[in-house]
Amino acid sequence: MPVLYWLQVRLPDGGLSFAFRPSSLWDGQGWWPGLVSSMFVHGGWAHVAMNAVAALAFAPPVARQLPGPIGTVSFLLFYVTCGVLATVGYALVHPDSFDALVGASGAVFGLMGAAIRMLGRRDGRLTPLHDRRFLMTTAAIMGVNAAAGLIGLAPGGGGTSVAWEAHAFGFVAGAVLIGPWRLLGGKPREAFDSASDLRDPEV
């Protein structure tokens, strides 16, 4: 992400041509390719830093569920799919908006939703969507997410609006899709856990 942003700021338009405008889905203005390209451009170094840190935190557990070369491709497609669904969701909520939407936050929230379904599981299985722990964690994350968007609590936001709805759509997409996706992406790696008996082995 930092490298991409370093290249972005050197473009004549600062990368604006890669952004996405929700209204373009309906008025034929031709901005719809931004459904994909918008997740590779950002609004500033703070924006890049937050997404990069979150991606580093939540990508590894998801990637471990998609091992091997096929899994690598599957992981990248999963990431992009979550980002696209997040952007489409935002466009459905704001169909008349001409504001430029940029950032990988929707895709990163997809990784977050998928990773949280693995919390507390040592058997390699996913936490059910109706599990109380998953629902409580989701409620807390969505509460903070909504506050960041509605009250403007995002650090380094500089007064720009936060597309919190896109974050929510991305999170739901990741949480729902990780189950069937990992079946298509290859056999998940077995979970590692220490043995319950930690005594020294007998010689």
Q: What's the CATH first level?
A: Mainly Alpha
Q: Measure the end-to-end span.
A: 52 Å
Percentage of residues assigned to helices: 55-70%
The count of helical stretches stands at 8
Question: What best-fitting shape do the alpha-carbon axes yield?
Answer: globular
Return the CATH topology.
Rhomboid-like fold
Strand-residue proportion: under 5%
Number of strands: 0
Q: Largest beta sheet, briefly? A: none
CATH superfamily: Rhomboid-like
> How many domains make up the 3D coordinates?
1
Based on secondary structure, the structural category is mainly alpha
Q: Give the name of the CATH architecture.
A: Up-down Bundle
**What's the Cα radius of gyration?**
19 Å
Order of helices and strands: HHHHHHHH
Helices and strands in order:
Layout: H1 2-8, H2 24-27, H3 34-37, H4 45-64, H5 68-93, H6 105-116, H7 132-150, H8 164-184
Helix pairs in contact: 4-6, 5-6, 5-8, 6-8, 7-8
Structure description:
- By secondary structure, the chain is mainly α.
- The protein has one domain: Rhomboid-like (Rhomboid-like fold), CATH 1.20.1540.
- The chain has helices at 2-8, 24-27, 34-37, 45-64, 68-93, 105-116, 132-150, 164-184.
